Amino acid sequence: LIDRNGETITADFDEINNFSNGLAVVKKGNKCGAINRLGKIVIPLVYEKLNDFKNEHAVCSKDGKFGIIDKNNYLTIKPEYDWIEAYSNFIRAKKNGNYGLLSAKENTIIPFEFERIDKTDCGIFLLVKNGKYGFAEESGCLITDINNDFDSRFQVEDLYSKPEKQEKQLYLKIYQNEKPGIVNQNGKVIIEPGTYDDVSVPSNGMISVFRKGKFEFYDIKQTKMIRQKYDQYAHFFREKAIVKKNDKMIIIDKNGKELFTDICEKIERLHISDNYYFLVTKKGLKGLLTSDLKWLIPAEFELISWDYPNFITLQKDEKNNVFSISQNKIIWKE
Q1: pLDDT for position 164
Q2: SS3 (DSSP) at 229
Q3: Partners of 316 in the β-ladder
Q4: Which of 50, 218, 250, 300 has the fewest beta carbons under 10 Å from its own?
Q5: Residues 6 or more apart from 80 whose CB is under 8 A from it?
Q6: What pairs with residue 112 in β-bridges?
């Protein structure tokens, strides 16, 4: 470690990480610790593993067990767990082969009796025990009983909704005797398991159901439906959904009105920075629609990709172009 004048502060380590929360994790031989910006050892080199500090705490490992240490060298969670993942106000951990949830003060929120605990980005947890699953809040209170049929092939993100900003209600997908249903975040049943062959978690106030080989859309109360039936669909987002009808990809609104009907092979919804777009493949070439379905980039490029939020790389005739979203034009050509 050197200062801005090139003076050596410390050089007696095999590894020095970048500074985080004012400390840098260092390694010498097989032991880890941490130093401050003056090169002083703040966390002694006695740990087998030490993560970078975040929220003034870091996961540490000693004698094959994991715990959490703070910036002042105080073990807030003693190293006695098989595995730990720390969040801002709780800790997911594994002990004696089972998973549980702890508070920052090592109080048990969810007991260590689950084969699996997954955190969702909606602040709830999926709990799996003896081949059954349910959901719990961060407080440990169960939203549903642990009595739904779990399949290891489930994608966790398909079992709960991601409410948009104007929506407050969260919905969860359950299975009873392998029949799918929907409950809300209070555990109230919205769709009884087995009502349909399959059902999606609500998105943008709409539910997709599958029966008799076709997809249909209903509102949450199942009082209003889109009369058309579709072969394929993507969830509603900000009043629009991508569907397939009679081998044709189209974009519809919540009333079933067809908003975009150009003949194309594929339509994908993309999120770039805070905006979203539709990537359209038409006669083998790609283009980009804005969220209000206006052509931002015509469908005449072999490849569309982006490495930065405001710039899109377009490939045509094996040559690259750079498109600026803010300037709404190609700003560089190969």
Answers
A1: 64
A2: strand
A3: 319
A4: 300
A5: 65, 67, 95
A6: none
- C-alpha distances (whole Å) from 236 to each of 104, 154, 244, 258 are 38, 21, 14, 14
d(CA 301, CA 286): 5
Region 77-98 average pLDDT: 91
Please give the Cα distance from 132 to 113 (Å, whole number).
Answer: 13
**Reading across the β-sheet that carries 198-199, which strands appear in turn?**
198-199, 206-211, 214-219, 225-230
The terminus-to-terminus CA distance of the chain in angstroms comes to: 42
Extract the tokens encoding 95.
């002990």
pLDDT at residue 316 in the model: 94
8 Å CB contact between 27 and 14: yes
pLDDT in tens, 101-113: 998 888 899 999 9
Please name every residue paired with 332 in a beta bridge, in sequence order, or none if there are none: 322
Mode of pairing for the β-strands spanning 206-211 and 198-199: antiparallel
Three-state DSSP class for residue 1: coil
Q: What is the pTM of this model?
A: 0.74
Q: Please report the DSSP string for 45-99 in residue order.
A: EEESEEPPPBTTEEEEEETTEEEEEETTS-EEEEEEESEEEE-SSEEEEEETTEE
